[in-house]
Every structure is written in structure tokens, then in C-alpha cells.
Design goal:
The chain has 6 helices and 14 strands. It is globular.
């Protein structure tokens, strides 16, 4: 069994991505790591090239500013990296995602267990979406709670954006579906909303054009308090020096008025609690 990790990154330093920690978090369980580095305004490329591992292979690219349709440029850059992978399994990781060292054996065992099972095409993780600080995460149907991050290289797959995959139907290129998946029993630790507010606004100013949108100022305090949860677990060792040292739950504006979408999510959360459901979006189909 051969495992290929892959990612894409641009302006990782100035936008506050813990991309070195991200890469190092799964490097022990992969055989190669393909990193597509977009033309940047900082030392992202040099920093990645300085990581002392023969597993890493760097591809340099330039993002198309002409592509402004629903963030598809993210899918393009993801595919550039994926199509250069040679492993049996493809482990996609984003520059603000970390995996816990205690879960690596579990993840590797899942890949070995299902490597020859044609009914299992992908492997799924639950997500911690940390917000504001390292002690706080968001739990809402509006924030995907689970996602497929490992996919078999034998599939005719593509990414409509950076988040998920679609698998082309065997008989037609006109139909696609979500991959059939099993759960790894492990978590992905997502720290994108832990970077400074200034870095998050800089990111927005630089990438909203790929959605044909204008930047709107981001204020971390403007969040629905009902989706704020306190994290009581242990963070991966590789990220501990990066995360903020402040204690306690992140404090949001008590006078914040939820948006219509957040009010809808509140209603969905009530239904979830009443019936023991998870109504968050799924980009995979769990199989028995």
C-alpha cells in the first residue's frame, strides 16, 4: 500500500496558515507528499523547500485571476496536486488542518483495512472547527461536521471546489456522485479561524475575487453564541507552539443578531437534539 498526501497553498505566511505544522502532522504515515505552491508574495515556497524530507515533491503554479466562478480556482489547484500523486490512497490536507499524533495509527489502519475493498472509496473524519482561540470550536449544521479527506487513486474523481470530491459515473461522464466511504474514527483539527483577525481579513481581500465577490470586513465577535462550544481535549503536539495561549471560551458579542441562515441553523439544531440527527451537509455516502 502506497499513500500520497497532497495540498495546495499560496501566500501561506502572510495569510497565517500553519502550513508547515499541517504538512508535518501527517508526514510520518505517507510515502510521498505533493505540494502545489502558487506564486506568492512571501517566502511560502522557500519555507516548504526547507522542510527536511525526501517525501516532499513541490509543484509551482500560477493561479488564474480570470477564474471567478464559485471558487473553482481552488478545485483547479487541488487537482493539479492530486493528478501528480502516484499512491493507492490520496490524503488531501489543507494548510490550516492538523491531525493528532495519537490518531495516525488509527488512520493508517483504516487505509490498510479498506485498501482492497472496492465498496469503500474514501475515508471520513470528524472536524473540530476552532474559532477565535484554541479553546473554542463551532458546532452547527452550517459548519461541516464530517468530511472525506482520503480517496482512492483508482477513482475517476474531480473537485468542483477545494472542499470535496465527486466521482464520475462508470457509464457516463455526465453524471457524478459522492464517494462511498467509511469513517476513520479520527478527527481533523481545523485552525483556520484561529489565525488573527487581521490575517483573516487579508485573506478575504485576496481571495474573494475568485468567487466574484467583494471583501466584507470580518469581525470574530459577530458569531451566534449558540454554536460556540468549549474544547476539552488535547491539541496535537505539532501545533501547540502556534496556537494562541489565551485561556477560556472565546467571547462573542452578546448583542449580535443572528442572520437568517443562522436562525435556520438554530431550528435545525433543535431538530437534531429532538431526534438524535446530524443535519450538516455530507459530501460522501457512508457504507456498511
Amino acid at each position: 500500500m502506497k499513500v500520497s498526501a497532497f495540498t495546495f497553498i499560496k501566500n501561506g505566511q502572510i495569510l497565517g496558515y500553519p502550513f508547515v505544522q499541517s504538512i508535518n502532522s501527517i508526514l510520518p504515515i505517507v510515502d510521498e507528499f505533493i505540494i502545489n505552491v502558487g506564486e506568492s508574495e512571501d517566502d511560502t515556497l522557500a519555507t516548504i523547500k526547507s522542510i527536511p524530507s525526501s517525501k516532499i515533491r513541490v509543484i509551482e503554479s500560477r493561479w488564474s485571476d480570470a477564474m471567478k466562478d464559485r471558487g473553482y480556482v481552488y478545485g483547479q489547484q487541488k487537482m493539479i496536486a492530486q493528478f501528480n500523486c502516484t499512491g493507492d490512497w490520496l490524503f488531501y490536507i489543507e494548510g490550516d488542518e492538523i491531525y493528532h499524533e495519537d490518531d495516525l495509527v488509527k488512520i493508517e489502519k483504516s487505509m490498510r483495512r479498506y485498501n482492497d475493498n472496492d465498496n469503500v472509496e474514501a475515508l471520513v473524519f470528524d472536524f473540530y472547527h476552532f474559532y477565535g482561540n484554541a479553546n473554542t470550536f463551532l458546532d452547527s449544521p452550517g459548519w461541516y461536521r464530517s468530511e472525506a479527506r482520503i480517496l482512492k487513486n483508482s477513482l475517476r474523481s474531480y473537485a468542483p471546489d477545494g472542499l470535496y470530491w465527486l466521482v464520475l459515473d462508470n457509464k457516463s461522464n455526465k453524471k457524478s456522485r459522492f464517494p462511498k466511504a467509511k469513517h476513520t474514527g479520527a478527527h481533523c483539527y481545523h485552525y483556520g479561524w484561529v489565525r488573527t483577525q487581521e490575517q483573516m481579513n487579508l485573506k478575504s481581500r485576496k481571495v474573494q475575487k475568485y468567487w466574484n465577490k467583494q471583501h466584507k470586513e470580518i469581525d470574530y465577535s459577530q458569531m451566534d453564541f449558540q454554536v460556540i462550544k468549549e474544547f476539552h481535549g488535547n491539541h496535537p503536539n505539532v501545533i501547540k507552539d502556534w496556537i494562541p495561549k489565551e485561556l477560556g471560551l472565546f467571547q462573542v458579542d452578546p448583542n449580535y443578531t443572528p442572520t437568517k441562515k443562522q436562525i435556520k441553523h438554530r431550528f435545525m439544531m433543535k431538530i437534531e437534539k429532538m431526534f438524535g440527527l446530524d443535519l450538516s451537509k455530507k459530501h460522501f455516502k457512508l457504507v456498511k
